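Bug #77: duplicate submission created two jobs. Keeping one. Sequence:
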Amino acid sequence: TEFCYGRLPGSAPPQAWEYPVTLMLESFVQTGAFLWLSSLDQADERPPGTLLLTVLRDVVVHGAGRPGELIRHTVRILRRMPGTVILTGQVHAGDRLIAEIGSALAAIPPPD
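Kept job's structure:
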C-alpha cells in the first residue's frame, strides 16, 4: 500500500521494489523526534514551535528494504540542548543492517 510502489508493474526489476532511501531516512528521523519529544513531554520541558530536521551527517547506506520486510530503527540521543537534539543510530530490514546514521540534528526554533 506504499505510495512509492503504487504504479510499479509486477514485472518491474527487483531494484524498483527497494524502499526509497529518502523515505527510510525520513522515518528514522521521525522515530528520533518521537523519542526526543516524548522525553521532553515527560519532563514538561517541550518548547513551543515547529520541529525541524536541520542536518544528517555521516549516513552510510548498506542496502535496502523490500515489500514485506519490517524496517526497524534503533535511535539513540547523543546530546540534548535547549530546543535541539543530536541523534544517531541504525536502520535494519529484518536482520540486515541497511543504514547507519552518524548524526541527525533536529531543533525546535523559538516561534517568531
